């Protein structure tokens, strides 16, 4: 069944804006805390720039990239590093398989960067 679960996650991921809600739902079922998600999204600070390395790792685990998440840990990618990553960094710098790397960049890294830029410029 784990295979069909990861496929479901990938299908959800195609629409970047549905993702934060997806991860909030998954987290809330586990620990039952609903009220915290405003100040701390899934136990992570809402602004990716404030994430520690483990926040980044957990973000990608929650998004269904179990295997790839450890690469962010090995390379010590924290939130600030994540926001600075280029497409090339994600595709080549983490030694990930190309397929997952493309999804990670397009559906996660890029939307986080875009959202962060909007928030910090206003």
Folded structure, characterized:
The chain is mainly α and 122 residues long. Helices cover 66% and strands 0% of the residues. The chain has helices spanning 2-13, 19-31, 53-62, 66-74, 79-84, 87-93, 98-121. Mean pLDDT is 78; it is low at 1-38.
Question: What's the arrangement of secondary structure elements?
Answer:
Layout: H1 2-13, H2 19-31, H3 53-62, H4 66-74, H5 79-84, H6 87-93, H7 98-121
Helix pairs in contact: 3-4, 6-7
Protein name: Sterile alpha motif domain containing 13
Domain SAM: 51-99
InterPro entries: PcG_chromatin_remod_factors, SAM, SAM/pointed_sf
Measured on Cα atoms, how large is the radius of gyration?
Answer: 14 Å
Q: Describe the largest sheet.
A: none
Q: What proportion of the residues form beta strands (DSSP E)? A: under 5%
- Tell me the span between the first and last alpha carbons: 44 Å
Shape: globular
Q: What is the H-and-E element order?
A: HHHHHHH
Number of helices: 7
* Residue windows where pLDDT falls under 50 for at least 5 positions: 1-38
Number of strands: 0
Q: Helical residue percent?
A: 55-70%
Structural class: mainly alpha
Give the overall average pLDDT. Answer: 78
In short:
The chain has 122 residues and is mainly alpha-helical.
Index terms:
122 residues, mainly alpha, 7 helices, globular
